[in-house]
């Protein structure tokens, strides 16, 4: 389905404009994630940087509303009914991308109550590795989506699942740690937010390998055979 949708979105206006807006939205959310990660780990932290993240999140939200409006307008014109599944797909995907922006913004808010420096220990070291996995997968998502690369999408979906499980195990370690309340809260929330960013990025990738009615519900066997149920 995705390959056909991309072909459709590249064809004529306004569909091409909708596709361009979605690509822009995805890239802006990726940039938000990277900038928020820098703030969360204390690699940067000026008020201006945080303000800029909020401004970018507003732009992502506006793009989501613009795409929805464009899709509704396109469908209201009585266009080919074959466009409907692809429009529904876009309506779902823009919500995932918008949520990534929200979680990136949430990461910056942890900065208000976390310790000045996060602990230099194994738990935070693993969370840094999670960050690298999430940002790396997200960086590849736009290219995979654009090229409809099913093989690479399946690899990163499996990686995303493993990262999510890694985050769950990390939360248990945090709960059993000797952190003070502020540190435990900050590290647990960071883990949670990186997990959710990774999960929504993975949801975008499921559109490459799964039919519309199974979007967000990746099943390896179904993805390999593409048998609708």
**Oligomeric form:** single chain
- Principal-axes shape call: globular
Low-pLDDT residue intervals, each spanning 5 or more residues: 218-229
Structural class: mainly alpha
CATH architecture: Up-down Bundle
CATH classification, class level: Mainly Alpha
Task: State the total count of DSSP E strands.
Answer: 0
Characterize the biggest β-sheet: none
Ordered list of secondary-structure elements with their pairings:
Blueprint: H1 2-9, H2 15-40, H3 47-76, H4 84-110, H5 122-147, H6 150-175, H7 181-209, H8 220-225
Polypeptide structure, described:
Helices cover 78% and strands 0% of the residues. With 229 residues, it is an all-alpha fold. Helix 2 (15-40) runs parallel beside helix 4 (84-110) and helix 5 packs antiparallel against helix 6 (150-175). The protein is globular.
What's a quick, concise take on this entry?
This protein is mainly alpha-helical and 229 residues long.
Keywords:
Methane Monooxygenase Hydroxylase, Chain G, domain 1; single chain; 8 helices; mainly alpha; disordered C terminus; globular; 229 residues; 78% helix
């Amino acid at each position: 389905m995705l390959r056909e949708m991309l072909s459709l979105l590249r064809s004529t206006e306004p569909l091409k404009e909708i596709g361009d807006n979605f690509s822009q939205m995805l890239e802006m959310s990726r940039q938000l994630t990277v900038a928020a990660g820098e703030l969360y780990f204390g690699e940067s932290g000026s008020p201006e940087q945080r303000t800029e993240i909020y401004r970018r999140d507003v732009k992502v939200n506006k793009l989501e509303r613009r795409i929805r409006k464009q899709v509704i307008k396109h469908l209201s014109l009585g266009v080919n009914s074959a466009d409907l599944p692809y429009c529904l797909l876009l309506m779902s995907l823009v919500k995932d991308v918008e949520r990534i922006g929200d979680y990136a913004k949430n990461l910056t808010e942890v900065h208000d109550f976390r310790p000045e420096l996060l602990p230099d220990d194994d738990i935070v070291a693993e969370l840094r590795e999670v960050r690298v996995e999430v940002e790396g997968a997200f960086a590849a998502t736009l290219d995979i989506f654009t090229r409809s690369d099913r093989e690479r999408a399946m690899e990163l979906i499996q990686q995303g699942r493993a990262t999510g499980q890694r985050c769950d195990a990390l939360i248990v370690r945090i709960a059993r740690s000797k952190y003070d309340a502020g540190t435990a809260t900050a590290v647990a929330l960071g883990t949670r937010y990186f997990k959710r960013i990774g999960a929504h990025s993975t949801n975008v990738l499921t559109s490459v390998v799964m039919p519309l009615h199974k979007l967000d519900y990746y099943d390896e066997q179904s993805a390999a055979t593409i048998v609708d149920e």
